[in-house]
């Protein structure tokens, strides 16, 4: 497998607006895009840094994996995303080496992104998203109001994204709820 | 201030050799360099990823900041490093905005790197190293034996790098030991 780049770092925060007061207003990172990630029930602000991005993620309710992470650990880096050249081949390699995965198979996330998560237990405490670029999965720059995004997400049905959300909720707990 | 790129991510691990079994042998990242960071009392393995690096850091004794981090949180991402174009200007800006800093002024780390750390309390739980590239501070690729590096570091005097180590030891504790 070949890892092309660090595609993004995701930082879990309690309040994106407050966090932007540091990352945007003081560090002067630019917000290129804001959106919701329905499966994880988070609002996201994307800030490009060279060929990578820093993402701020804020949960909109108390029972998502990101919310659990915040409750247990406080704000901080939630996961890193590594772009691979061939996600199927990467997953096959990880399975061959008995690496514990959050997602047994790749799935399609927001904006048509094809991705899968490796369990932090297998990766020395780091939750790793593996992502393979697809034609047309580039995010279109668009900064929407954070409050509108929150309301939008809260109002949507609470149907969890297949499987993944349950895994995420258990990732940072002490118990073995996730496999 | 202008942030040029994510220069590296540092992952605190209990045992670099074991961690390389995942990051090098399974993810197939290449180790370009191994070294010690005397001030933080860690052995480091550097793995380039595009224009960034992933670093594995292993403490050699129990009383460094990285050791404390591992004791309290377990392995995981310890800090991120952002390259800035002008570190003095960046520090000035941070001071103007009353951002809590680990290092009040930039200092010269290993390989002649000029850097300073922002306190995680100011950065939503993320320990941020700011770094300004200097002529001649590129690391020369050289992979030394990890065990030799450990012994080398343990045998050196325990004189702490000015100030920084004490701050690092207190960073992740609940008490306000650091200011």
Note the topology:
The structure is a homodimer of 179-residue chains.
Chain A: E1 3-12, H1 16-23, E2 33-37, E3 42-49, E4 52-59, H2 65-73, E5 76-84, H3 87-96, E6 107-108, E7 114-118, E8 128-132, H4 146-155, H5 164-170
Parallel strand pairs in A: 1-4, 5-8
Antiparallel strand pairs in A: 1-5, 2-3, 3-4, 6-7, 7-8
Strand content of chain A: 25-35%
Largest interface here, residues on each chain?
A-B, 40 and 40 residues
Overall average residue pLDDT of chain A = 88
Distance between the termini of chain A: 25 Å
Beta strand count of chain A: 8
Annotation field: number of helices of chain A: 5
The radius of gyration of chain A is: 16 Å
> From the structure provided, what is the oligomeric state, counting identical versus distinct chains?
homodimer
Strand order, biggest sheet of chain A?
2-3-4-1-5-8-7-6
| Helix/strand order of chain A | EHEEEHEHEEEHH
Low-confidence stretches of chain A: 159-163, 175-179
Principal-axes shape call of chain A = globular
The largest β sheet of chain A comes out as: 8 strands, mixed
Helix content of chain A: 10-25%
Protein structure class of chain A: alpha+beta
């Amino acid at each position: 497998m070949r890892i092309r780049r660090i595609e993004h770092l995701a930082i879990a925060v309690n309040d994106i607006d407050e966090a932007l007061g540091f990352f945007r207003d003081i560090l002067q990172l630019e917000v290129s895009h804001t959106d919701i990630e329905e499966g994880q029930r988070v609002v996201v602000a994307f800030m490009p840094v060279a060929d990578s991005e820093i993402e701020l993620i804020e949960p909109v309710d108390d029972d998502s994996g990101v919310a659990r992470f915040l409750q247990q650990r406080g704000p901080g880096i939630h996961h890193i995303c590594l772009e691979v050249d061939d996600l199927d081949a990467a997953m096959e390699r990880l399975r061959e080496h008995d690496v514990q995965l959050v997602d047994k198979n790749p799935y399609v996330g927001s904006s048509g992104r094809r991705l899968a998560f490796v369990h932090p237990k297998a990766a020395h405490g780091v939750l790793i998203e593996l992502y393979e670029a697809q034609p047309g999965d580039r995010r279109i720059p668009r900064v929407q109001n954070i409050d509108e995004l929150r309301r939008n997400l809260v109002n949507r049905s609470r149907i969890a994204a297949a499987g993944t959300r349950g895994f995420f909720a258990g990732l940072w707990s002490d118990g073995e709820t996730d496999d």
